[in-house]
Batch of 2 targets.
Target 1
Amino acid sequence: MPDDFNVPRVNVLGVGISVLNLPLATRLVLDAVQQNHRGYICVTGVHGVTVAQEDESFRRVLNRAFLCTPDGMPMVWAGKLNGHKDMSRVYGPDFMLEIFKISAVNGIRHFFYGGNQGVAEALRIRQLDRFPGLTVTGTYEPPFRPLDSAEEKALKSQVKEGRPHIIWVGLSTPKQEQFMARYLDLLDTTLMIGVGAAFDFHAGRVKQAPRWMQRTGLEWFYRLCQEPGRLWKRYLKNNPLFAARAFCQATGLKKYSLD
C-alpha cells in the first residue's frame, strides 16, 4: 500500500479503527480515486465491533478494509484514550455528503447498491437535486438474499457500463461489509463504501437523530425509538456487551489482538 494510505489504527476489541476525522477521510477518498487505489471502506461502530467478536471471518473483513472509519462515538473515545486527539467521528451519512460535495469538481462518478424498494432511486433523485453536477451512473436494489448468477451478471454489466469510481452500499452490517469484500474484485470500480442507514436518511425515508444526540453517543436511543421491533436486540444486547468488553480491554483484564 502506498505511504499516502498508511493510516494508523486503534485496536478496539481486535478491530482496527482508522485514526481519522471527516476532512482526512474525504481527502483519502479523493486521493484513492485519483490514484486508482482500489479498496472498500467500512463505517464501523459498536454493532460492527460486537458482531466481529462472534465472527472471526467478519473481523478479518473489517481489518482488511482500506479504511475502517470511526462511525460511532465510542470508537472516537477509544482513539482519544490512545492519544489521538485529532480523531473525530466519520459518520456514514455525513461522509457521503462530503464526498458528493467534491464530486462534481473532481469528476467522481457514483453508483448506489442497496436499500428497500425504491430507496436507491429516491436517493439518486434527491442527491442530484441537492448537488448540481453530481454524476450517478446507476442504482441496483438487490433481493433479500445472495445474488443468483443472472443477477450477478446483470450487476456486473451495469457497473461496467457506468464505470463508477465509487459504489455506495446500503445494506446492513455485516451484510454490506461481506458484500464489498466479495465483490470488490468482480466489479469495475475503484472504491466501495458501506454506509448502511445513510440510504434511508438521505432518501427521506427515516429521520436522523438530532446533532446533540449524535455528539453525546445517544443516537442509538433515537433509532431504537424509531424502529424498536428491528433494533431492540441489537442495542439492548450489543451495547452492554461492548461496554463490558471495552472495560476489560482498557484495564488489561483481556487482550485483543489485531488479525
Target 2
Amino acid sequence: MSQFYQIHPENPQARLIRNAVDIIHKGGVVVYPTDSAYALGCHIGDKTALDRIRRIRKLDDKHNFTLVCRDLSEIATYAKVNNTSYRLLRHTTPGPYTFILQATNEVPRRLMHPKRKTVGLRVPDNAIAAALLADLGEPLMSVTLIMPGDEFPLTDPYDIRDTLEHEVDLVIDGGYCGMEPTTVVDLADDRSVILRAGKGDVTPFES
C-alpha cells in the first residue's frame, strides 16, 4: 500500500519533502507533479526501482528515461553543454522542456542512448519537484505517468492512488496536473532540432 502525501503546490511542507526523499533513498518509486504532468521517479542509481517503473509502464529496455535536475548547473554535471546550448538552456529553464544532450561519465550507461550516448534532461518549473530535487541533491530518474494503453497522462492524484496504490511507494498530491507533454529539443549535435512540440514554446529553438 503506497503512502499518500498532500503537499502544498506553492509552499511545500519541508517535513513531507524530507519524508519523500527518504523513501527515494530507500529504493522507493514515487509519483510526483511537474510543470507538464505527473511523473514516476526513483533514485538515479537504483536499477531495481527503475525496473519497477518499466513494469508499471510496460516499457522495454530501449525506452529513454529523463534525468530531472534541480538547475542548469546540475544539467552541466550530467551532460556536455557548449556555449550555444548553455544560452538556450539558461533562457528556457526551469520550464516544460526535455533536452537531449551528450552524456557525461556521471550518467549510468543504462540511461544513455546505446549508440549516440545521449541522455534526456529537464528542469521543471514546479515548486514540489524543485523542493524534492533540492533535498535529494541529485537528479531523479523519471518518466511521464502514462499508463499502458492510455494516450494521456493521469491528472487526478486520487485516481493515481486508486490505480497505483499497490505498485508505488508514494503518491504526492500536488493538485491536478496537466496532460500536455514537454517540448523535446535535441541539442546533441551543435544545433537545435525540435523532436516534439509540447507545452514549451518552440520559438527560442527556431533558427
